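User: Sequence in, structure out. Go.
Assistant: Echoing your sequence, followed by the structure tokens.
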Amino acid sequence: MPRIAARCCLRASFRHFRADRIARIALTAQPYGKPRRTLTKEWQQAWEQAWEREGKAPA
């Protein structure tokens, strides 16, 4: 199942959402505040740390 990774400001971490469960999406003109490359690098580091800690891919 395809998943979408996104930064959750409330939890200060990355979340993974199942694409088939997203009912609605709205694009806004408001930028997140970090460049896409920075977010991608942070996500990859979080993924690797979770893999090392749990021995499996994060849900």
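User: And one key feature?
Assistant: The beta strands are 3-8, 13-18.
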